[in-house]
Amino acid sequence: MAQTEYIGEGALGNIRSVVAAYAPQKIFLVTGKGSYTASGAAQGVAEATTGLAVLHHTDFGALPLQEDIEKGIAAYTAFGPDLVIAVGGGHVIDMAKAINFYTGKKPLIAIPTTAGSGSEATQFAVVYKDGLKTSLESPDILPTVAIVDPALARSVPHDIALASGLDALAQSIESLWSVQATAESKKYAQEALALVWKNSIPAIETGSAPAIAAMVQGAHLAGKAINISKTTACHALSYGLTYRFGVPHGLAVAVFLPALFRHNAFVSPEQSVTPEALEQLLVTLKVKRLSGWGIQESDIAQLAKEVNIERLGNNPAPVTKEDIIRFYTQAL
Ligand SMILES: [Fe+2]
Questions:
Q1: Residues 254 and 146 in one domain
Q2: At 233, which CATH number?
C-alpha cells in the first residue's frame, strides 16, 4: 500500500484537509507526554479535530512494551475510532502502529517530532515482550499518511536530538550494506546518508534550523530505505542495551557502527564516511561508551545470548558468537 507523504517546512498545515478527507467521527490520538505541545503539533492537530470526538492516549512509558500496547488496545476498542493520529518520536509512532494493527487497522496519520527513527515510513513496529525485542511486520502497519515537518523537531532537547540523529545515521548505513538492499532502498539510503552525515553536528550541537530540516528529511528517507532493506547487526546488538540498561536506541546502535563497518569491509558511497570518521563523530558528540551506562563485562554473556538473530541474518558478513562478544567488549 502506498503512503501519502507531506514533507517539508509547513507540512503540518496539511493536517486539516488530510483529516477532513477521512470525514472521521472519532479519532484515537497517540502522543508523547511532553513533545506533543512542545513540538507545536498540538495546535495544528487541535484545529484539525475541532468538534470531533478525540481520545488522547498517552498512557505508556518510554519503550513500546507489550503490556502498554494491551492497555492501548483496551482503550482503542472501548472507544471505536475510525481514524488514528500518532504524533511523537519513533517509540510513540510504533505504539500507535501496533495498537492499530492488532485492533482496527484504521487509516493512520503519522507525524514525527524527531529527526530519527523514520517509523512514519516503515511497515514494522518494535515491541518489547517478556524482556525481548520483537518486530511486528505487515503492509497494514505502514502509516497511511506521513506528515514530516521540520518545524516540529526544532524544540527537541539535545539528548533526544542526539539519539534520534544517530539512529538515522545507523539506519542509512545499515540499509546500504544490508543483504536485502535493492536499487530503490540504496537510492533512499544514499540520499539519507548524505543529508545526515553533513548535518548531524550542526543540527545536534547548535540546533541550526536548516541542518535540522535536512536531518528530518534524511531520517524519513532512511526510514523508507530500511522499510525495504531492514536493519542489520548494529540494530540486532542494540536491543538488550536499550531494554536492560536504558541506553537510548540511537546510541545503542551507533556504538557498533565503526566495528561493523570494518567487519563488513564496507565501502561507503559517501567517501568521507569511514570507520575512523565515525569514531571521531562519536567522540565529538560525546557519546558515552557502554560502561558509562553501567554495563560491565559480566553482562556480556547474557546480552550476547539475547541478540536478535533475524536482524543478524541481514548483515553482509557472518557474525559469530565470538564476534558478538568482541563487539560488546570493544564498546564497553
Ligand atoms: Fe533504529
A1: no
A2: 1.20.1090.10
Distance (angstroms) between ligand 1 centre and the Cα of 75 equals 28
What is the rounded distance in angstroms from the CA atom of residue 142 to the CA atom of residue 261? Answer: 29
Three-state DSSP state, 233: helix
Return d(Cα 147, Cα 173) in angstroms, integer: 24
- Within this chain, do residues 117 and 213 fall inside the same structural domain, yes or no? no
Single out the residue of 245, 54, 39 nearest to residue 147, CA to CA: 39
Residues 77 and 119 in one domain: yes
- Residuewise pLDDT in 10s, the chain (332 residues): 689 999 999 999 999 999 999 999 999 999 999 899 999 999 999 999 999 999 999 999 988 899 999 999 999 999 999 999 999 999 999 999 999 999 989 999 999 999 989 999 999 999 998 878 888 999 999 999 999 999 999 999 999 999 999 999 999 999 999 999 999 999 999 999 999 999 999 999 999 999 999 999 999 999 999 999 999 999 999 999 999 999 999 999 999 999 999 999 999 999 999 999 999 999 999 999 999 999 999 999 999 999 977 789 999 999 999 999 999 999 99
Taking the centre of ligand 1 as the mean of its atom positions, its distance from the CA of residue 127, in whole angstroms, is: 13
Q: Could you tell me the residue range of the domain that residue 78 belongs to? A: 4-153
Q: Which of 94, 122, 153 is the last residue of a domain?
A: 153
* Total domain count, the chain: 2
User: Bridge-partner residues for 84, per DSSP?
Assistant: 28, 108
For residue 250, report the distance from its CA to the centre of ligand 1, in Å: 6
